[in-house]
């Protein structure tokens, strides 16, 4: 009886956890050696963003100001970074005025480079460990605001050199809003159902 109660509690906790993800990952790679992992984790003030990886060299950098990068509104179709649409900008800031990290009302929500600085590149391409809290990014909220179902794109003087979908835990996919992503990730659903089937298997063992 006790085991069954624990198993049920676990099943309920697992369903609740699936509703709003707490972690998202974008693994940005290209054929030219870019291999960078963005991890988004929920913290009280927003999302904790950690960035690790390699492939951004000073030699390939077109501008001395570095490589900029953003959250784009749509997921990647067929590996084509141009398919991701524009920057996530639910408050319609546009790029008319440059982002000011001290005044976020001037920053597009998706303009991570504008808020926290460009990647400058290094001799060997290895990125210094990067970690910051972004108070505008969120998993929750309406379809215009969430970063669920969107992508990360890295630019080199405007050219989109590498991109990847933000894959989250759970399945809280936005369904409405002008900028709502049009497709959902199969990987997200699969991960959710695998987690759930694990709990079900445990419950059956307990019986
Ligand atoms: C953000 O994540 C990094 C890496 O896991 C961790 O070291 C850091 O303490 C986290 N920051 C907050 C505010 O949770
Ligand atoms: C990539 O996406 C853009 C924008 O949707 C489109 O115009 C272009 O034709 C696509 N390129 C390829 C090779 O599919
Ligand atoms: C965004 O701002 C531009 C320029 O100020 C304006 O023309 C446009 O209608 C706005 N779009 C939305 C969706 O508010
Ligand atoms: C932030 O920018 C907005 C829009 O330009 C401006 O109205 C506001 O005064 C600025 N706030 C601060 C604290 O500078
Ligand atoms: C950067 O891109 C712009 C616009 O495409 C182009 O005019 C400029 O020449 C490029 N800069 C360099 C240094 O290649
Ligand atoms: C998304 O933004 C558009 C235009 O800014 C607005 O009309 C719409 O109501 C928003 N959607 C949600 C779900 O808030």
Automatic annotation (TrEMBL):
<dbReference type="Pfam" id="PF00080">
    <property type="entry name" value="Sod_Cu"/>
</dbReference>
<dbReference type="InterPro" id="IPR001424">
    <property type="entry name" value="SOD_Cu_Zn_dom"/>
</dbReference>
<feature type="signal peptide">
    <location>
        <begin position="1"/>
        <end position="18"/>
    </location>
</feature>
<protein>
    <recommendedName>
        <fullName>Superoxide dismutase copper/zinc binding domain-containing protein</fullName>
    </recommendedName>
</protein>
<feature type="domain" description="Superoxide dismutase copper/zinc binding">
    <location>
        <begin position="49"/>
        <end position="160"/>
    </location>
</feature>
<dbReference type="GO" id="GO:0005507">
    <property type="term" value="F:copper ion binding"/>
</dbReference>
<dbReference type="InterPro" id="IPR036423">
    <property type="entry name" value="SOD-like_Cu/Zn_dom_sf"/>
</dbReference>
<keyword id="KW-0732">Signal</keyword>
<dbReference type="GO" id="GO:0006801">
    <property type="term" value="P:superoxide metabolic process"/>
</dbReference>
<dbReference type="InterPro" id="IPR024134">
    <property type="entry name" value="SOD_Cu/Zn_/chaperone"/>
</dbReference>
């Amino acid at each position: 009886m006790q085991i069954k109660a624990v198993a049920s509690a676990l099943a309920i906790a697992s369903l609740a956890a699936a509703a709003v993800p707490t972690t998202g990952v974008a693994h940005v790679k290209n054929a030219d050696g870019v291999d960078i992992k963005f991890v988004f984790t929920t913290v009280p003030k927003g999302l904790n963003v950690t960035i690790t990886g390699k492939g951004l060299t000073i030699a390939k950098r077109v501008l001395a100001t570095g490589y900029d990068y953003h959250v784009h509104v749509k997921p990647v179709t067929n590996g084509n970074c141009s398919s991701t649409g524009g920057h996530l900008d639910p408050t319609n800031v546009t790029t008319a005025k440059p982002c000011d990290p001290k005044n976020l009302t001037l920053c597009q929500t998706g303009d991570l480079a504008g808020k926290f600085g460009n990647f400058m590149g290094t001799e060997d391409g290895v990125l210094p460990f990067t970690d910051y809290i972004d108070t505008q990014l969120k998993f929750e909220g309406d379809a215009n605001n969430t970063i669920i179902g969107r992508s990360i794109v890295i630019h080199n003087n405007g050219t989109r050199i590498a991109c990847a979908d933000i894959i989250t835990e759970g399945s809280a996919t936005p369904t409405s809003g002008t900028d709502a992503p049009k497709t959902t990730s199969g990987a997200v659903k699969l991960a959710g159902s695998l987690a759930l089937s694990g709990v079900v298997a445990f419950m059956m063992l307990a019986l």
